[in-house]
Write a structure and sequence with these properties.
- The complex is a heterodimer.
- By secondary structure, chain A is an alpha/beta fold.
- In chain A, strands 1-7-6-5-4-2-3 form a seven-stranded mixed β-sheet, with helices on both faces. In chain A, strands 8-9-10 form a three-stranded antiparallel β-sheet.
- Chain B is α/β, with parallel strands linked by helices.
- Chain B is built from 13 helices and twelve strands.
- In chain B, α3 packs parallel to α9 and α9 crosses α13.
- The longest helix of chain B has 39 residues.
- The chains are: A alpha/beta, B alpha/beta.
- At the A-B interface, α1, α2, α3, α4 and α8 of A face α1, α3, α4, α5 and α9 of B.
Chain lengths: 390, 376
C-alpha cells in the first residue's frame, strides 16, 4: 500500500469513526462525506458517474455480485452467460454456481496468444444470452482483451457486458464510456490501496443496468449491497484511485520500460518463451516459460529475495499447473516451468538487474542438473520418447 | 463545540491500541515485496493466530470461525446456507430482527419458496417463547430459527438457553445474530446448541469492514462468495489482513475489560434511566430496560409534542449524537420497525436510542439531560 493512502485513511479510524449511515449527527455526516468524496475519486478514474459506483469488500465480491446479480435480475430475459476459460477463479466459480442453479454458461477457449476470438464470441450469443463476462487484463499473463470490440458485439445483440478489470484499473486508462462497459469489478489493493475494499461499476444510462443484491440488509449502496461501509478502506481506495489517475501515464511508461528490459534479457536464455500476446498487454506484467526447468525449483532458488509467482496468488497453494497457461495450449511441463513477473510502483532498476541475474543464474544451474536438458542438448527428441507409466 | 457520542450501537471509535496492532499490516508487512515468501507465511500465521484467539474467547474451535466483510455478510451467508445447503424449508424469525436478517428471510421466502413464520412479540420486546415452541412443534419441515441475541434498537436480550434448548428439542437449525453482543457479552459456544452466530468488528472498538461467521462443526455449508481457496474454501477473496488482526485484538481487549466495562456502562444506563423518569414526565422505555437487557442500549420514548418532534435535530445542534432507530435504516424517516412491533402507541411517541461505550461518562449524561430539559 502506498504510504500516501495510509495517511489519508488514518483520521477515519480513531477520530472520525462515524457510521456513514448515521443520518442524524455529525459523526455520521463526516463519514458519509468522506465516502462520497472517495466515490468521486474512484468514478473519475474510470470516467463513471459517482452514482454508478457500488462499494464492496473486494473484487471477488464484485465479481459474484455482477454475475449472480445479473443472473437473478434478468431471469425473465434469459439464463445464458458467455465467459472464457482464462477468467479469474472468482468469475469461473460464480459461473459454476450459476450452472448449478439452472443457468447455461459458455466458456470460450482462448487463442494461443490468450485473446478470445471475436467471431466465436458472436456465434455463441443466443436469444437467451443475458451477459458476456470477459476480463480486461489477465492476472497471469497480462493480455488485454479487445474490450471495445467485445462491447460493440454485446450492444449489437442487446446483451450486457461485464468485465473483471481488477488488474487493469489504475494501470492502464480504463474508460467505461469509451469502452462501452456495463458492469466492471475492481479492487483497492491491486492499485496500492487497502485490502478489504473494492467496487462494482453499474451503468445507469444507455442502458440502465440493475443487479439483484446478494447481501440484503439496511439497503446501503442504492440497495445493491448492504452492510456498514468500511469508511477508512473506502477513503484509502479513493486516494489510491486519485494517485493512479495522476501517475498512471508516467508510471506505465516506467514499468513497461523496465518490464521490456527484464524480458529482453531473460529471453537471451535458450528455450525461453513469453506467454500471451505482447502487443496487447498490461505494462507491468510478463510471463515467461523456461523449458526444462521446474517453476517450483526456480521459485525455491530465489524467492527469499524476489517476489514473483508461478501462477495466480489465489491458486498458488496448489501445485496444479496454471489453468490459464494450459488454456493457451501449453503442456503441463511448460506450464510448470513458467514464472509470472509483476512489476509495481516500488520496483526499481536495481531490482530488475538483480532479478535478471538471479533468474538467469538459477535457470542455468537447474538446467545443468537436468537430465532432460542434457538430452535436449544432445539432440534427443524428448517428445518421441515413450515414458514408462508409474 | 464538544461533541457527545451516544450512538455506540451504530458504531464505535477504533481503539488506538487496536490500530497499533493493525499498523504493521498496513505498512511494512506489505510494502516490501522482496520478502514476499516470508510475507506470505507470516500473514498466514497472523490470520490463524487471530482465528485461534477469537475461537478461544467464544468457546469455539478455530475451524468454526470464518472471517467475512461484516455482520451483514455473515447473516446473509448463514441464512442462505441453512436453506440451500442444509435443506431448511421453514424459517422462524421475529419482526424485530436487524434488516440483514429480516430482508434476507423475506428474500428467501419469496425466491426460494420457503415458509416464513414470525414469532409473536410481548409488550416487553421479548419474543413469546410459548408461541415459538408452538411454531416449532407445528413445523413438519426442516426448520431454521433465526433470532437475534441483543436487539440493536432496544437492547433486549434473547433467552439464549431457552431458545437453544427448544431448537435442540425440535431439531432446528439455530442462527443468532450476535452483532451487538460479540465483544459485549460472554459466550461459550461449545456448551450451546447453536449453528451460526455472527460478529462485527466495529461494534466493539474494532475496525469496520470485517466480521466473523461461526459455523458449528457438525454442519457443512458451501461458500456464499465464490472464487478462491481463502478461508478454507469457505469465503473467497483476498483476506482483509489488517481488519482481521484488528478484529481479534479488539475482541481480546473487550474480553479482558468485560467485567469492569459492563458494570460501568450498566451503572451509566441505570443512572440515565432514573434521571429521565425523574425529570421528564411521561417518559417510558422501549424494551425490557430493567430486566433482560444489554447494558449498552437505552431506548426512551418521549411523548410526541411540537418540541419533542424536533428533538433529534435539536440534540444534534447541541453536539449530541444519538439515534432515532438503527443507523442502517436511519435514512428513512419512518418509525422503526422494532418500535412498531412492540409499542401499539408508536404514533404518539418520539423514541430516542442512547447507546454507551466505555468512553461515555456521567458528565456527558448530565449534559445530555440538561440539553433535553432545554429542548422539552
Amino acid at each position: 500500500m502506498d504510504p500516501r493512502v495510509l495517511e489519508a485513511m488514518l483520521p477515519y479510524f480513531v477520530e472520525k469513526f462515524g457510521n456513514a449511515a448515521s443520518r442524524n449527527h455529525s459523526f455520521g455526516w463526516v463519514a458519509e462525506e468522506a465516502v462520497d468524496y472517495a466515490r468521486e475519486q474512484v468514478a473519475k478514474l474510470i470516467n463513471a458517474d459517482p452514482k454508478e459506483i457500488i462499494f464492496t469488500s473486494g473484487a471477488t465480491e464484485s465479481d459474484n455480485l455482477a454475475l449472480k446479480g445479473v443472473y437473478e435480475m434478468y431471469a425473465s430475459k434469459g439464463n445464458h452467460i458467455i465467459t472464457c476459460t482464462t477468467e479469474h477463479k472468482a468469475v469461473l466459480d460464480s459461473c459454476k454456481h450459476i450452472e448449478k442453479i439452472g443457468g447455461q454458461v459458455t466458456y470460450l477457449q482462448v487463442q494461443p496468444d490468450g485473446l478470445i476470438d471475436l467471431k466465436e464470441l458472436e456465434a455463441a450469443i443466443t436469444d437467451k444470452t443475458i451477459l458476456i463476462s470477459i476480463m480486461y487484463g489477465n492476472n497471469e499473463i497480462g493480455v488485454i482483451q479487445p474490450i471495445k470490440e467485445i462491447s460493440q458485439i454485446a450492444r449489437k445483440h442487446g446483451v450486457l457486458f461485464f468485465t473483471d478489470a481488477t488488474q487493469a484499473v489504475g494501470k492502464v486508462p480504463v474508460d467505461v464510456m469509451a469502452d462501452g462497459i456495463d458492469l466492471m469489478a475492481f479492487s483497492g489493493h491491486k492499485m496500492y490501496g487497502p485490502k478489504g475494499v473494492g467496487a462494482l461499476y453499474v451503468r445507469r444510462k444507455n442502458p440502465r443496468v440493475k443487479v439483484t443484491s446478494q447481501m440484503d440488509g439496511g439497503g446501503h449502496e442504492r440497495g445493491m449491497r448492504s452492510g456498514t461501509l468500511n469508511v477508512p478502506g473506502i477513503v484509502g481506495f479513493g486516494k489510491a484511485a486519485e494517485l493512479c489517475m495522476q501517475e498512471m501515464e508516467s508510471e506505465a511508461k516506467r514499468l513497461s520500460t523496465m518490464r521490456d528490459r527484464l524480458e529482453t534479457e531473460l529471453m537471451k536464455l535458450e528455450e525461453a518463451y513469453v506467454n500471451g500476446n505482447t502487443d496487447h498487454r498490461l505494462p507491468h506484467t510478463t510471463n515467461i516459460s523456461f523449458k526444462y526447468v521446474e517453476g517450483e525449483g526456480l521459485m525455491m532458488g530465489f524467492n527469499k529475495n524476489i517476489a514473483l509467482s508461478s501462477g495466480s496468488a489465489c491458486t498458488s497453494a496448489s501445485l496444479e499447473p496454471s489453468y490459464v497457461l494450459k488454456a493457451l495450449g501449453l503442456g503441463d511441463d511448460l506450464a510448470h516451468s513458467s514464472l509470472r513477473f509483476g512489476l509495481g510502483r516500488f520496483t526499481t532498476d536495481e531490482q530488475i538487474d538483480f532479478t535478471i541475474k538471479a533468474v538467469t543464474d538459477t535457470v542455468l544451474k537447474l538446467r545443468e542438473m537436468s537430465p532432460l536438458w542434457e538430452m535436449f542438448k544432445e539432440g534427443v527428441d524428448i517428445n518421441a520418447i515413450e515414458w514408462a507409466h508409474h | 463545540m464538544a461533541r457527545i457520542y451516544l450512538d455506540n450501537a451504530a458504531t464505535t471509535s477504533l481503539d488506538p491500541e487496536v490500530l497499533d496492532a493493525m499498523m504493521p499490516f498496513l505498512t511494512e508487512k506489505f510494502g516490501n515485496p522482496s520478502s514476499i515468501y516470508s510475507y506470505g507465511r507470516e500473514t498466514k500465521l497472523a490470520i490463524e493466530n487471530a482465528r485461534k484467539s477469537v475461537a478461544k474467547i467464544l468457546g469455539a474451535n478455530p475451524g468454526e470461525i470464518f472471517f467475512t466483510s461484516g455482520g451483514t455478510e455473515s447473516s446473509n451467508t448463514a441464512i442462505h446456507a441453512a436453506v440451500n445447503d442444509l435443506g431448511c424449508k421453514h424459517i422462524i424469525s421475529s419482526p424485530v430482527e436487524h434488516h440483514a436478517t429480516l430482508h434476507t428471510v423475506e428474500h428467501m421466502a419469496h425466491f426460494s419458496k420457503v415458509k416464513l413464520s414470525f414469532v409473536n412479540m410481548l409488550p416487553t420486546g421479548h419474543i413469546d417463547l410459548a408461541h415459538l415452541e408452538e411454531l416449532m412443534a407445528g413445523s413438519n419441515e426442516k426448520t431454521l430459527v433465526t433470532l437475534m441475541h441483543a436487539n440493536n434498537e432496544i437492547g433486549n436480550l434473547l433467552d439464549m438457553d431457552a431458545v437453544s434448548a427448544l431448537c435442540k428439542k425440535y431439531d432446528c437449525i439455530f442462527h443468532s445474530d450476535t452483532v451487538q453482543t460479540v465483544g459485549h457479552y460472554p459466550f461459550n459456544l461449545k456448551e450451546t446448541y447453536i449453528h451460526f452466530i455472527n460478529g462485527s468488528g466495529h461494534k466493539f472498538h474494532g475496525p469496520k469492514g470485517v466480521g466473523i461467521l461461526y459455523v458449528n462443526e457438525s454442519i457443512n455449508i458451501k461458500p456464499y462468495i465464490n472464487g478462491g481457496a481463502q478461508e478454507r474454501n469457505m469465503r473467497a477473496g483476498t483476506e482483509n489482513l489488517y481488519g482481521i488482526i484488528g478484529f481479534a485484538k479488539a475482541l481480546e481487549i473487550a474480553t479482558q475489560r468485560y467485567a469492569e466495562d459492563s458494570a460501568y456502562m450498566q451503572g451509566l444506563k441505570e443512572y440515565m434511566a432514573s434521571a429521565l423518569v425523574q425529570n421528564f414526565p411521561g417518559v417510558t422505555f422501549n424494551g425490557d430496560t430493567n430486566g433482560k437487557s444489554l447494558y449498552t442500549v437505552l431506548n426512551a420514548s418521549f411523548p410526541l409534542t411540537e418540541k419533542s418532534d424536533m428533538l433529534l435535530f435539536n440534540l444534534d445542534m447541541a453536539g449530541i449524537c444519538v439515534s432515532g432507530g438503527s443507523a442502517c435504516t436511519s435514512g428513512a424517516n419512518s418509525t422503526s420497525h422494532v418500535i412498531k412491533a412492540i409499542n401499539s402507541n408508536h404514533e404518539n411517541i418520539v423514541p430516542i436510542r442512547f447507546s454507551f461505550s466505555r468512553h461515555s461518562t456521567k458528565d456527558e449524561i448530565d449534559m445530555v439531560l440538561n440539553t433535553l430539559k432545554t429542548n422539552l
